[in-house]
């Protein structure tokens, strides 16, 4: 969760710098606003992803972990956009989004065996 907020703050600072130093002219100016909006959308997805994954782990339920993996794929697509497809990609963009992808990949690598374990575990009476 901490990295999600640090990532958002760093990306906003980076976009403020890009907006003043790089040539966003004409239609590109509106695309700058769209890319800043995507930072907030990705923050919401990331926080939702972490909440659902934590809930699934604590309650030992498979369904939230499946949702966690799906949200991770969506968040990873957002990070890939910021890595390769945004208008101006800086070295800082590469570093910040690569770190995010590493965290997301580790989360999925840990979630899948946990998911399998929860699916195979016998259900207690009354569940």
UniProtKB/TrEMBL annotation:
Task: Respond yes or no to whether keyword Membrane is given for this record.
Answer: yes
Q: Where in the cell is it found?
A: Membrane
- Residue ranges spanning the membrane: these are 31-52, 64-88, 94-118
- Give Gene Ontology CC terms: ciliary transition zone; membrane
Pfam families, sorted: Transmemb_17
Q: Report if keyword Transmembrane helix is assigned.
A: yes
Q: How does it sit in the membrane?
A: Multi-pass membrane protein
A single GO BP annotation from the record? non-motile cilium assembly
Name the InterPro entries for this protein. Answer: Uncharacterised_TM-17
Q: What is this protein called?
A: Uncharacterized protein
Instruction: Write down the species.
Output: Strombidinopsis acuminata
């Amino acid at each position: 969760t901490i990295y999600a907020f640090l990532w958002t703050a760093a990306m906003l600072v980076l976009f403020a710098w890009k907006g003043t130093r790089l040539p966003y002219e004409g239609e590109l100016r509106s695309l700058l606003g769209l890319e800043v909006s995507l930072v907030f959308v990705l923050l919401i997805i990331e926080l939702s992803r972490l909440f659902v994954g934590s809930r699934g782990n604590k309650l030992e339920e498979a369904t939230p972990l499946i949702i966690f993996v799906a949200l991770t794929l969506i968040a990873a697509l957002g990070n890939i956009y910021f890595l390769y497809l945004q208008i101006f990609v800086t070295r800082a963009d590469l570093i910040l989004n690569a770190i995010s992808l590493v965290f997301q990949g580790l989360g999925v690598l840990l979630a899948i065996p946990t998911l399998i374990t929860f699916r195979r575990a016998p259900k207690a009476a009354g569940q």
